[in-house]
Predict the 3D structure of the following.
Amino acid sequence: MFTIITGAQFGDEGKGKVVDLMSGNYDLVVRFQGGDNAGHTVKVGEDVYKLHLIPSGFLLDSRVLIGPGTVLNPEVLIREIDMLAEGGIDIGPEKLGIDARTSIIMPYHIELDGLRESRRTEKIGTTKRGIGFAYIDKVARDEIKMADIADHARLLRRLAELAPAKASAIKELDGDPGIVTDEQLVAKYVELGRRLAPYITDVSYEINKALEGGKNVLAEGAQGTHLDVIHGTQKFVTSSSTIAGSACANLGVGPTKVDDVLGIVKAYITRVGEGPLPTELADEAGKQIQEVGKEFGTTTGRSRRCGWFDLPLLKKAIYLNGYTSIALTKLDVLSDLDPIRVCVSYELDGHVLDYPPEDTAVFAQCRPVYEDLPGWEGDLTGIRSFEELPQAAQSYVLYLEKRMGVPIEYVSVGPAREQTFRKETGN
C-alpha cells in the first residue's frame, strides 16, 4: 500500500503528529520535498520532538527515508540525529536513508537567500535557510548532491567548478564572496559528508522493492498545498511542489502505485509570512485562536496569522491533491467561540465566487462570505472518540465533511498521539 500525506492549507496543519500516529502501520516513511524550512512537532507522553528533516516515523519501527526531491542542510540533519541520540533514540543507517541525488544546501545558498530577501521591496517571507537557491541550482544542474559531499575529492572538484559564479553572485548583492571557498566551512562539509556517507541509498529503488514485496509506504510532504511553487499563491509560495502528485515525481514511483491520499486540515486556517489570507482575523477571536492553538512557527518562531475555515481554498486543495480522506486537526482550539464561522464563498466586485481566483493579486482582493455555526464550550483535549464530542462540535465536523465531499477519517483534539481518534464511518 502506498499512501501520500499532504497539508491542505498553508502548512502547519499537524502533518507530523498524523504521520507519527499512522507510521506504526507502515514499513517505510519517506519525505518527498522541501527542506529545513519546514518543521514538525511530535509529542509522545511528556516528550516533545521538534524536527525539520527526519520524517516522523522514526519513533516506531518504520525505516525513514529522505528522498531526492528534498534539499538537505547536512548540519541541521546531524544536529537532529545527535539531539535524538541524547534522548536515547538511535537514528543509524539502518533506520534512516538519504538518497544519493539529494541536493545539498551550501553556506552560499543561505547567504544568497538572506541578501536577496533584504533587497526585495515586497517581502516573500522566506525563512532565509537557502531553500530557494538550492532548488535554483537543482534546476540549473549546478547543485552539489549528497553523493558529492560524501567524497572529499569530488566535493572539492565540484566547488572549484561552481565557486566563481557563486562568489560573483554574492558580491553583486554586496555580500562576502569569501564564504564560498572558506576553508573552515569546506572542512565542516567534508566532515558532515563523512558522517552521513553510510546513510546513502537509492530511495526510488527501496520504495519500489518494498511495494513489490507487499510492504506499506507512507510519503510525507512538507508545507501545504497553497504554498506549491506552481499552484500556490504566487509569489508567496515555497520553492518546491507540495501537492500529492509531486510525491510520485520526486520519489520515482509511478502514479498507478498510489492507493490513498490523505489531506491534513486544521479546523481553522493559519499562514506564516506574507500573502493573501481572506479569512484572517484581527479581532479577539483571532487572538484567542492564536494563543490557545500556540500558533507560532516550529522553524522560525514567527506568529502565525489565524482565520476562519476557508472552504473555497479547501476545494482547490481537494482538486489539486485528489484526497481520498481528511484528518481534521486542532478542533479543540475552537472551544468557547460562538458563533464559529466558515467561509463558503468570496465576494469580489459585486460578484460571488465559490473558487479562488488564479491571480494572486485578484485573490488578495476577495472578501469572505460566511455561514455561522453554533459554538461549544469546554475543554475537548480529554476526549477520545467522536461520540464524546459536544453535539455542536460533532455538527461542525459533519458540516465540513459534507461541504468538502471527502470523508473525515481522523479528528484531533490535542498534540499528543492519543488525542487523535478515528471518526467511524457512518457518523
Summary: The mean pLDDT is 93. Residues 152-172 form the longest helix (21 residues). The chain has three domains: 2-102+198-257, 103-196, 265-422.
